[in-house]
Amino acid sequence: MKDRNFFHNPFFQAFAIIFIAGCFLYLDFYVYKNITRRLINPFGKAVQAKAIDLKDYLPFDENSKTVKIEAAENKKFSSGEKMPVLDGATALLPVYSAFFHSLYPKEACVFDGTDFKSESYLQKHNTAGAFKALVEKKADIVFCAKPSEKQVEYAKQNGIEFVLVPVGLESFVFLVNKDNPVTELSVEQIRGIYTGKYKRWSEVGGDNTKISALTCKEGGGSQTAMLSFMNGTPIKTVNNAFEGRSIGYSFRFYVDGIVNDANLKMISLNGIEPTKENIRNKTYPVFSSFYAIYRASDSDREDIKKVIDFALSKTGQEIVEKTGYVSLE
C-alpha cells in the first residue's frame, strides 16, 4: 500500500514528468547535434537532384538567363535549311543554348513548357543521354566533358567514332558544407579520402567527425572526371552521412553558376582556389576542356562545321566567357 501511495504522490509524479521530458529533450538535442545538423542540406537539394530549370535557359525567351549575342546574318541558319540537333550535359546548357540563340531561327526551338519536344533542334538529355543520342543519331553535336571509356566503347560497338573539339575550359571541384572547418586539401589527401585511407576529418585538418565521401552515377560527366582524377586508383568509400560530414564533387560553373547554394563551399586544392583566373593560368590542379563532339562520319557536313566554327570564333568564345566558363585563350 505504501508503494502504491508513493507512485501517486504528486511530488513524485511531477518529478517523473520533468525527468521524462528532460530525457526527450536530451535525446532530441543529441539527434540534432550528431545527425540532423549534419544532414540539413549538406550539398543543396539542387546539387543532389542535378536539377536545372530549362525555362531559365530558353534561347529566345527575353527573361531567360541565356547570353544573347547576335551572330552575323551570313553565319545564321535559315528556316528550312539543314541544321544539326544540339544536345549536351546539364551544366553546359547555358553555353549551347547561347550558341543556339546566335545561329538558329526561333522556330527551331520547340518547348512544351516542361521539356524540349522531339522535333526541337535544341535538346538537353544530360551527359549519358546526350552521348546515347549522338550514337543513335538523334543528336548531331553534343556539348560535354570527355566521354567515359564505356561511352567510347558503346559508340565503337555501334560503328560510331567521336570527334572532340575543345570549346572552353572548366575546373573540377570538391565540395563540403559551409560549416565544415576544412577549407583546403591536397590532391593526395582527396585521393586518400576516396580510397578509404582517411576516415575522419581530423586526419586532414578538420574536426573529429567521420568522412562521408559521396560519389556520382556512372556515365555522368562528374563521375568520368572523378575517375580520371583518381588516375586508375579504385574508389573505396563509406557513406557515413548519418554521423559524419560529407564531401562531394562537381564542375565549378554548375555549382557556382547554376546551383548557387549558400550552403556549399568549394575547397582549395594544393592551396589554389578554383577561380576563373586560376583556371586560365592553369595553376588550379584539376582543369579540363569541355568539347563540341560529333560523329566522325559527319565531318563533311557544312551545318556542323558552321556551329563548330562559331563556337571557336571570337564571338563564340565571348559567349563562353560571359556564360561563366573560361575561354580557350
Characterization of the model:
With 329 residues, this protein is α/β, with parallel strands linked by helices. The chain is 37% helix and 16% strand. The longest helix has 30 residues, at 10-39.
Supply database-style keywords.
329 residues; 37% helix; alpha/beta; 9 strands
- Overall geometry comes to globular
How many helix segments? 12
Strand content bin: 15-25%
Distance between the termini: 92 Å
Summing up helix and strand content along with how strands pair, one would put the structural category as alpha/beta
Record field, number of beta strands: 9
Low-confidence sequence ranges: 24-42, 44-50
Average pLDDT, all residues: 85
Main sheet specs: 7 strands, mixed
Using only C-alpha atoms, the radius of gyration works out to 26 Å
Sketch the topology as an H/E string, one letter per element: HHHEHHEHEEHEHEHEEHEHH
Overall helicity: 25-40%
